[in-house]
Amino acid sequence: MTTPTEVPLPPSQRARGDESLIIVMRQTATDADVQHVIDRLEDIGAEAHVSRGKHRTVIGAVGDREIIQQLPWEAFPGVERAVPVLKPFKFVSRDFQEHDSVVDVGGVPVGGTHFVAIAGPCAVESREQLFASAEAVAKAGARILRGDAFKPRTSPYSFQGLREKGLELLAEAREEFGLPFVAEVVDPRDVELVAEYADLIRVGTRNMANFTLLSELGRQHKPVLLKRGFTATVEEWLNAAEYIYKEGNHNVILCERGIRTFETATRNTLDISAAAVVRRLSHLPVIVDPSHSGGHRYLVAPLTRVAVVSGANGFMVDVHPAPETALVDGAQAILPTEFAELMVEVRALAGVMGLEL
Ligand code: PEP
Ligand code: MN
Q1: pTM for this structure?
Q2: CATH of region 11-85, choose from 3.20.20.30, 3.40.50.2000, 3.30.70.360, 3.30.70.1140
Q3: In whole angstroms, what is the distance from residue 10 CA to residue 43 CA?
Q4: I need a surface site. Which of 70, 138, 245, 297 has the fewest CB within 10 A?
């Protein structure tokens, strides 16, 4: 694969600190070779971020570019090449780590050839509603349950979620149906609370650029599902992921959920190239949300089929036992029976793509 960093950004787009060096070690490099590089970086006041891959070790050097680049890194024992990274996102880039990251979500692998189905209600409304949905999606083959306890809504007068009570119900459903769950966090002050319960913490589209929230999530260890901002470019989205990764939480999964375009037939326009673009630029897993992009029930199946063959590592859909009574997003929720039918198709397409479901 050609390295995307070989195309330099125009000087006007470069900022101080935007450039660093990725030092790729040879497969035959010894631990001593790796340590020697780290020691030299530390000697010159640079930070060394080490990624020990299955096949090779890669070291990200961040600091004063002028000083870092003065050293003849390619002459060091065990070093294969030193690549300046012109992109503002570094550790989430493919240059830093060649192989796909696989994120463990409560025992469920997401990434590489593992394709994951995530399903459940948009919001937790009651035990009956949540359990009916969870039981059905578990039976149909979903591996992760979705359901929100905190709902940031367009209108401040709309239902805002059951808060901690909702998280308790989700934890009960996890026990009952054996599904780890994903739930959204909205406020940095709630990160600790949500992390206590959830297996995967979601950042919603409206919060993708909430850097305080992202950094807070980087400082705890539960995996994070980072939705794309509905007006964000792929580069802005990967920068948001970098905020989390940089703080030490490497368990980040991206989620394409549609972007705002001039089209009004759909709630948002699903960017069907997003998964392929992201996977070229980054080693992080990326999933697709057909419910929040299409915004209509009839679009969930077609957009899910697209997700499976688009290079995505999974999908997430809203499933509600009685969508007509839903307090949130009823128009885009599918019935448990429809989800079961959809899973039959997903299995067939995943087979074609060589994915493990
Ligand atoms: C959701 O997944 O329930 C949600 C609110 O999504 P988004 O932030 O993408 O609108
Ligand atoms: Mn929703």
Answers
A1: 0.87
A2: 3.30.70.1140
A3: 31
A4: 70
